[in-house]
């Protein structure tokens, strides 16, 4: 039966093994590249059509990818952008010049993929060649970019890099944002293991541009560069000056790279930490492609990404961010307090397996009112354990399991004037955006 809507298409794709939903499913047979390479070959290797910039890292990779893609689009090149995860819709993951592909194109390609899967020996669902959800989405993205005539594409990894389904490209360059301890059950127990996995996107003879990194991470990335005879440029070595000022309307960035004049840019993305993402994007692009300054100005101003210090409401200020690691929530908290002051309300929810105690140590003492909720039902969560971690540091913390009810109570506590921060999970961000829209308040 033909897939007739994008909803049907993505439901079909989500019916495959979904490693985002349950990381416990990561096994040798699911986390490898042979299968995605075979599927791409069936469709004429669409990943080879555009010039690719490949982005990995722990924090800031989505924002950095969006900034790079927006500049390439402003330069006049038709540009694909593939990111993950999404906040509300799978349509967020595949963009062409900042917009989702046309529905007709998605359905045409989706039905081609479905027919190929159903032609497997034994049919769909029983053959080891059936792609995972992420592999099918990656295949769909590359097909969309080729069919749309994209000359360039910015591809963000899912988890890791070395064995990530996106690591089938021959990129113009690799971009590696700050790396920290995460997904240890998949990528390995130490920072060195994780860096090796994420550094796996570095290709022989192709340059890699790396954001601010800890000393151990720098050492490992430099090792990878020597092994692959690839030039590794670190932002902290190339950057002479970086400054940023932030307001609810955006972020003003001033940067100077070694050997270049000082530049000033305006970002729509909020947060002083976005200056580092913009500086890394500027470093990678300026050292790789001929791009006029006006394209940077226009692209940086247009770049947008949901649930990255996203201002859903101005009265009271309601900020939505998908931060879910200690380092990222610390940065979000700093920007939130700089923008709106210290007297805020926190609505927090996180999935199982995250570093809850460390995030609680950062967030719980910073808010008088704390509400813990569940980040939807897509992945397992343990809200009682989260509550215990926060209540140990803030006795006023309480649990309201339903995100819609939690949002209603948090807005009541804000009393129309106190700022509200929602953070802890992409899945919670999606739940709150939907709830806010149903209240008739979202734009």
Sheet having the most strands: 7 strands, mixed
The secondary structure category is alpha/beta
Q: Taking strands numbered 1, 2, ... along the chain, how are they ordered across the largest sheet?
A: 3-2-4-1-5-6-7
CATH fold topology of the largest domain: UDP-N-acetylmuramoyl-L-alanine:D-glutamate ligase
Strand content: 15-25%
Number of helices: 16
The domain count comes to 2
What general form does the structure show?
Answer: globular
Q: What is the CATH first-level class name of the largest domain?
A: Alpha Beta
Q: Cα distance, first to last residue?
A: 36 Å
Low-confidence stretches: none
Mean pLDDT: 93
Give the C-alpha Rg. 21 Å
CATH architecture of the largest domain: 3-Layer(aba) Sandwich
Helix content: 25-40%
CATH superfamily of the largest domain: Mur-like, catalytic domain
Tally of strands: 16
Structure description:
- The mean pLDDT is 93.
- α2 runs parallel beside α5, α3 (61-74) packs across α10 (274-286) and α4 crosses α5 (133-148).
- The protein contains 16 helices and 16 strands.
- α14 (383-391) links the parallel β14 (369-372) and β15 (398-399).
- The relative contact order is 0.11.
- It starts with 5 loop residues before the first helix and ends in a 5-residue tail after the last helix.
- With 443 residues, the chain is an alpha/beta fold.
- The chain has two domains: 6-234, Mur-like, catalytic domain (UDP-N-acetylmuramoyl-L-alanine:D-glutamate ligase, 3-Layer(aba) Sandwich), CATH 3.40.1190.10; 310-438, Alpha-Beta Complex (Protein-Tyrosine Phosphatase, Chain A), CATH 3.90.190.20.
- It has helices at residues 6-14, 34-42, 61-74, 103-118, 133-148, 184-187, 191-198, 215-228, 235-238, 274-286, 293-302, 326-340, 356-363, 383-391, 403-414, 426-438; strands spanning 51-56, 79-82, 94-96, 152-156, 173-176, 208-210, 232-234, 239-247, 250-257, 263-267, 310-314, 317-320, 345-348, 369-372, 398-399, 420-423.
- It has a seven-stranded mixed sheet, sandwiched between helices. It has a six-stranded mixed sheet with strand order 11-12-16-13-14-15, sandwiched between helices. The chain has a three-stranded antiparallel sheet with strand order 8-9-10.
